[in-house]
Amino acid sequence: MALHQKCWHVLRRVADFNFSDGKQPLAMARKSLTEMADLLNLQSAAETHLAQYEDFIRSMKPRFVKRGARPLLLTTLIDPRHMLVFGPNSLFQEILDEYGIPNAWQGETKLLGQYRRQYRSSGGV
């Protein structure tokens, strides 16, 4: 069990924060940032941050549109025997959708859209 899971009840008393609703974590992150900014009276900073983020995502779209509609498999290696595969409901899915890129992973995922996979390394995955 991860440290944040062990301490969740304590963390919720300090700052009640939900990273994901299990459907659209990026939209939830935007909403949480806005709510936190309201609590801290930092609305202008949050608006600036979100505007810069949107500008960046928009500026990158032409680079990814060129690749066509081939599915993309998003992974990250955890250690020599484990990797995460990011599928629907992951933080990246909304961006893939915006860019018109199908997610290659259509299998099982957890709440945040990831699937942990163990593999045997034989020079490749």
Automatic annotation (TrEMBL):
Q: Name one Pfam family in it.
A: Peripla_BP_2
Show the InterPro entries listed in the entry: ABC_transptr_periplasmic_BD
Q: Domain named Fe/B12 periplasmic-binding: which ranges?
A: 31-113
> Which SUPFAM superfamilies does the record match to this protein?
Helical backbone' metal receptor
- The molecule here is called Iron-hydroxamate transporter substrate-binding subunit
Originating gene: fhuD_2
